[in-house]
Amino acid sequence: MNEHNFLYEVRCQSELSSPAALESWVRENKERFVSKLEETGAILFTGLSVKNAKDFDHFVSMFDFKVFTYKQSLSNAVRINKTDKVFTANEAPKEVEIYLHHELAQTPAYPKYIFFLCASASKVGGETPICRSDHLYSKIMAQDPALIKKFEDFGVIYNSIMPNGNELHSGQGRSWQTTLGARTKAAAEKKIKGLGYSCEWVDKDYLAVTTRVFQATKMLTGGDKSFFNQVLAASLGWKNKSSLGLPPVTFGNGDRLREDSINSMFDAARSLTLLRKWSDGDILVIDNHRVMHGRKPFSGNKPREVLVSLTA
Ligand SMILES: [Fe+2]
User: Fold this and answer.
1) What separation in Å is there between the alpha carbon of 168 and the centre of ligand 1?
2) How far is the CA of 36 from the centre of ligand 1 (A)?
3) How many angstroms separate the alpha carbon of residue 88 from the centre of ligand 1?
4) What is the 19 CA–ligand 1 centroid distance (Å)?
5) What is the value of pTM for the model shown?
6) For residue 291, what are the contacts with CB-CB under 8 A and spacing of at least 6?
7) What are the φ and ψ backbone dihedral angles of 250, each rounded to 5 degrees?
8) Percentage, residues of the chain above pLDDT 70
9) For helices 259-271 and 133-143, what crossing angle results, to 10°?
10) Structure confidence by residue, pLDDT tens digits, 44-55
């Protein structure tokens, strides 16, 4: 294992093609997989006969983790549920890059493990880049300790705009109605207040939301720290909260991040990123506390279908 190639790969044999054989194999080896996941942050299963949402739901269930549903999450991405616990990764258009992030680190509740099934790999691009965020924390600390100190002293605040109705052209297009589970503007405001956030109605009944302060780093079991946040994805990918003139992320004291800091963190993350081509049937499991993920743009006539299941 090195900083880039931390992925633990399990190549599965053809005798696991029946659901019963697969289930007993997973149950027998589950503890080993979970301890590998704690150690490396990511496991890739290849050669399994898990082909669709139903098979995948069954596979995830074998691990007995607590389900973390999309419906109850404050995810800002538009996703389509395929089963109760399996949904599409993000309906954002293929040319949109989703930059490295920890899933839902900009919200009070985030998953521990993320399961991805590549049901259909695109011909070109479409990789799910992954990056050890504990390594990124150390790298930023070595380059700019004052920056890490500022993140740890003040935390971060996120500014976003929730559309009025889902918008499929954006990576953050989930409407305020579905994100907040609210039918009326009054119900949305009540939910926002309950979260300790603030909000403002802007043009076309879109809702501009400012979160409370969230920690930007996380202490992991074993004593390492990860750069646990959405700073890169928000700074590089989220649309600016232009009507109010606020950037997508600031320090918790309101200070803006400097552009050269964002660029140097991005370069550090890129130098640690593992970019592996998907094959149909691959299953990737990551520890969301330790590993960041993203999505590369894709093209070609073969559809990309990556399904996701989150667990607590
Ligand atoms: Fe994500």
Assistant:
1) 16
2) 22
3) 11
4) 28
5) 0.94
6) 41, 42, 130, 131, 132, 133
7) -135, 170
8) 96
9) 130
10) 999 998 999 999
CA of 198 to the centre of ligand 1 (A): 24
Task: Provide the pLDDT for residue 241.
Answer: 53
User: Cβ neighbours of residue 19 under 8 Å, at least 6 residues apart?
Assistant: 55, 58
pLDDT in tens, 159-170: 999 999 998 777
CATH superfamily assigned to domain 8-132+275-311: Clavaminate synthase-like (3.60.130.10)
What is the whole-number distance in angstroms between the Cα of residue 71 and the centre of ligand 1? Answer: 15
> 133-269 is classed in which CATH architecture?
4-Layer Sandwich (3.60)
Domains 8-132+275-311 and 133-269 share a fold: yes
- Report yes or no: 292 and 114 within 8 Å, Cβ to Cβ: no
Centre of ligand 1 from the C-alpha of residue 280, in Å: 20
How confident is the model at residue 222, as a pLDDT? 87
CA–centroid distance, 242 to ligand 1, in Å, is 24
Ligand 1 centroid, distance to 288 Cα (angstroms): 9
